[in-house]
Amino acid sequence: MKKNLKTLLQTQCPGFGSPLNFKLTGSFAETQIGFTLEKAEYAYALEASWAFTIVFRYMTYKDLLWFFTAILLERKLVFLSNNIHLLTATLFVMRSLIKPFNYPFPLIFNLPEVLMVYCDAPGAALIGINKGEEYLKEHNLFEDYPSCVFICLDEEKMYIQPENNVQPVQFNNFERSLMTLYTKHNSNFNRTLTDPKKSKKAVNKPDSIKITEDNEEKEKSLKIHELFKTTLEKKLLKFVPETPIYTKKKVLIEIVKIMILTLYNRTLTMMRLERL
Q1: Which among 57, 92, 218, 243 would be 20 to 30 A from 228, CA to CA?
Q2: Percentage of residues of the chain with pLDDT beyond 70
Q3: Contacts (Cβ under 8 Å, ≥6 apart) of 175
Q4: What is the pLDDT of residue 84?
Q5: Does the pLDDT at position 65 exceed 80?
Q6: For 263, which DSSP code?
Q7: Cα separation of 121 and 138, whole Å?
Q8: Greatest CA span in the chain, whole angstroms?
Q9: Which residues lie below 8 Å from residue 116, measured CB to CB, with a gap of 6+?
Q10: What CATH number has the domain spanning 44-238?
């Protein structure tokens, strides 16, 4: 294996849109590895592009809109699935939905049981658990961690507290454009995963998730994801200041001011108590 990795490391990287074919040797003889680097215009999401077709085939445009909004509003999303491929693909795509922005919070692909209390940590997160709905019920996760939104991918169910629900963003023509792309791409158009009121039998069983794709389907998936990126660029990115509002120096000054003000208030309170 070390010899194969060394040879691969010395192999010249292909250009954008070009394939890389590599033949393994030794105990892996006759095994061919193929990889095609995305076109330059889609390189911004290189780490997740392989998963677009899997997730967009599974979810509807309404699901994507809901998750997109929840991520922007910094909700803590916990995905459960017995299928590690679907789970990993979903988390990669969720993180990439807010491109060109980076997701600054923790991304955990498979949270171990001994660290399950992390679901109670403050702040947003994208968390995966390689278990099904039975595990969620057996360990009372929904009751113990009310700040989390639990999405059971295999069973197509979502467990959510009313205060964690969100209304999908309403950008001009964004939903209509997404719906148009989706009707050409996804056969599960009328199915909605993110509606807590609905509970349906899973369309895609854990052992039947299709991970192959043709060029046409891949191109459509890339266009769906690109729509999210261009919308954020037009609606939000142009309002972001070119220079940071808070620099390290300014933050330190603000911290010192807060400390001085706190000390002043504490001293003033103690003086008033002494007078009493």
Answers
A1: 243
A2: 84
A3: 61, 65, 168
A4: 92
A5: yes
A6: H
A7: 21
A8: 89
A9: 139, 141
A10: 3.40.50.11500
Tokens (6 digits) for 237: 């990115």
Contacts of 203 (CB under 8 A, 6+ apart): 58, 156, 188, 191
How many angstroms separate the CA atoms of 66 and 198, rounded?
15
149 neighbors 126 (Cβ within 8 angstroms): no
Residue 97 buriedness (CB in 10 A; 0-12 / 13-18 / 19+): buried
Cα(260)–Cα(276) distance, integer angstroms? 25
Q: How far apart are CA 267 and CA 265, in angstroms?
A: 5
Question: Domain ranges in the chain?
Answer: 2-37, 44-238
Q: For residue 221, count other CB atoms closer than 10 A to its CB.
A: 25
Summarised one tens digit per residue, pLDDT across range 107-152 is 999 999 999 999 999 999 999 999 999 999 999 999 999 999 999 9
Q: Considering the entire predicted model, what is its pTM?
A: 0.73
Dihedral sign computed on CA atoms, order 57, 61, 65, 70? negative
- Amino acid identity of residue 24, one-letter, is L
CA distance 181 to 177: 6
Question: Do 135 and 113 contact (CB within 8 A), yes or no?
Answer: no
